[in-house]
Structure formats: structure tokens, C-alpha cells
Specification:
Elements: H1 22-25, H2 34-53, E1 62-68, H3 73-87, E2 93-97, H4 101-109, E3 115-120, H5 129-137, E4 140-142, E5 156-162, H6 170-182, E6 184-193
Parallel strand pairs: 1-6, 2-3, 2-5, 3-4, 5-6
Helix pairs in contact: 3-4
Length: 195
């Protein structure tokens, strides 16, 4: 005699008689619809993006945006005393990124307590001799800021950026700003002019 095949409980109709197929709705083997998974994924992406843009994902790095219609290097030099009072002891190791970085680094080096370096995103062939000496001594580097910077994480207490991000495409801008934040331990200050 043949053994009777066991009954699959997920195929039974509800015993309560109130709502047919209710047991199949709550079956543990049932899968969530694909659109539900996609909706949860998109919601999670919005939450993460919102978290990062509100400053929560910057690991304590402060951001300051100052807009102007001209080159910001003069503004950066005028902002140095304000930054010193705002950042206090954090202004010991500073990296400036932007054109004419030699003049900003020279202004920062006038303070004996401050160590300063620079990244010049453009060629320095037309620069003066003082700037060429700074490049030769390694205080200022000529580097393309679209690619990883040649510094370790948190190498500088403050990173100042002026007139360097306006011309980057969104693709490179999304790579460059996190890279600038990576080398900073206390702050990232961005001075930008309008295109």
C-alpha cells in the first residue's frame, strides 16, 4: 500500500472562513513584491544622501561657503585672521588648494605657529621666483585635483580651497570634495566665485 502524501499547509484554505487565501498572504515562504524592495532601496538612498548633505556624514568636518564675483585669493588672505580666531589651535597645519597658492601659503607662513602647504592645480611656468622656490622645496605641489591628493588622511587641521572647484564637472566635483575632506582633520573651508 502506498503511503499517503503529506498535505502542504500553505495550500490550505483558511479554517476561519472569514477571508479566503488569508493564510497564503502571511506565509513565511512568500516573497515581498519587487517594487517594495526597490522602494525601500530608494528610500534608503535618500536618507543616506540627506544625511551626508546635512553635514552628519562629514565626521565633524565643518563646511563654509563664501561666494564672490572675483578671484578669492585676496579674500582668503583677509579671512586668515578670522579663521585663526574661529579655529584657534586647529590652525597649525593648513593646506591651501587653488591658483596663486604661493601667495596664500606665504601669508600663512608669516605666523610662526602655522605650518602651511599648497596645491597649485595649474602650471607654474609663469610664476615668480619665490613661488618656484616653494615648489622646488616641496611646500607647494603642482597637482591635478581631480585625482587623489598625495597626502595621508587627516594630514592637515584645515584645508582652504579657493577658485579651484568652479570648473570641475559634477563627476570630478563629487570625487574632489570628499578627497579634500579626507586630508583634513578639523575643517574644510571653500571660497568660490561665480562662473
Amino acid at each position: 500500500m502506498k503511503a499517503r502524501r503529506p498535505v502542504n499547509p500553505s495550500r490550505r484554505i483558511s479554517d476561519s472562513g472569514t477571508f479566503p487565501y488569508s493564510s497564503s498572504f502571511f506565509n513565511s515562504r512568500s516573497r515581498a513584491p519587487t517594487y517594495l524592495s526597490i522602494a525601500i532601496f530608494i528610500l534608503g538612498a535618500f536618507v543616506i544622501i540627506g544625511y551626508l548633505f546635512r553635514g552628519g556624514g562629514t565626521l565633524g568636518i565643518q563646511k563654509a561657503w563664501v561666494e564672490a564675483d572675483f578671484s578669492c585669493n585676496g579674500e582668503v588672505q583677509r579671512a586668515i585672521p578670522i579663521l585663526k580666531s574661529a579655529y584657534g589651535n586647529s590652525l597649525h597645519r593648513v593646506l591651501h588648494v587653488g591658483p596663486e597658492t604661493c601667495s596664500v601659503v606665504s601669508a600663512l607662513l608669516r605666523d610662526e605657529e602655522t605650518e602651511a602647504w599648497g596645491v597649485e592645480p595649474y602650471d607654474v611656468e609663469d610664476a615668480d621666483e619665490r613661488c618656484k622656490r616653494m615648489v622646488h622645496r616641496g611646500i607647494v605641489r603642482v597637482a591635478d585635483i581631480r585625482f587623489p591628493l598625495p597626502y595621508r588622511a587627516k594630514s592637515f587641521s584645515l584645508v582652504l580651497v579657493s577658485d579651484a572647484l568652479e570648473y570641475l564637472s559634477p563627476k570630478y566635483l563629487n570625487r574632489t570634495i570628499p578627497e579634500l575632506a579626507r586630508v583634513s582633520s578639523d575643517g574644510l573651508v571653500i571660497f568660490t566665485g561665480k562662473k
